[in-house]
Amino acid sequence: MIQNTILNQLNEKGFVVSKIRGVSMWPFFNQKNTQVYIKSALNYNKNDCILFLRDDGSLIMHRILYLKKDFFLVCGDNQSQLEKVYCSQIKGKMTEYYINGHTRRPIGIKYHVYVRWIRITRPIRVIRDLLKHIIKKIINKK
After folding, report:
1. Domain range holding 45?
2. Which of 21, 49, 139, 140 could form an S-S bond across to 94 if both were Cys, CB 3.0 to 4.6 Å?
3. Out of the domains of life, which is the source (predicted)?
């Protein structure tokens, strides 16, 4: 239901303001106090936070990490797995966000340091997720 409302507003008005759900973009976006302004767009760059539609119909916001000729590789800031996203799946990109009522834009030195940190530490999240998987397998064997 929420996906249809978001997509309808993007199609009709060219933008939508929505509350964040989930933890894939944590710590940048916190579902308790963050809203995002998503705007329809035609061009996307590395590090943009995009809203895209998965094959299962779910709307997801992740960051573009790599630009390829025919697709983008994206990942949530709190995730490790890269996901292939085609332009036809992208519905818009985040141009502003609101935390505790304060408007912010994804620009400036603090933002760029944060993005660089997220990119550099992705291998640590890969190891974290692998360890979680191994621990779950061990626990489920007993």
Report:
1. 2-141
2. 49
3. Bacteria
The domain that contains 127 carries what CATH number?
2.10.109.10
CA atoms of 117 and 97, how far apart (whole Å): 19
Look at residue 123 in the predicted model and tell me its pLDDT: 94
Number of domains in the chain: 1
**pLDDT tens readout for residues 36-94:** 999 999 899 999 999 999 989 899 999 999 999 999 999 999 999 999 999 999 999 99
Which among 74, 111, 86, 82 is positioned nearest to 96, based on CA atoms?
111
Residue 1 has pLDDT above 60, yes or no: no
Q: How far apart are CA 61 and CA 93, in angstroms?
A: 9
Exposure b/e, 121-139, CB count within 10 A at least 16 = b? ebeebeeeeeeeeeeeeee
Structural tokens at position 23: 């933890």
What 3-state DSSP class applies to 34?
strand
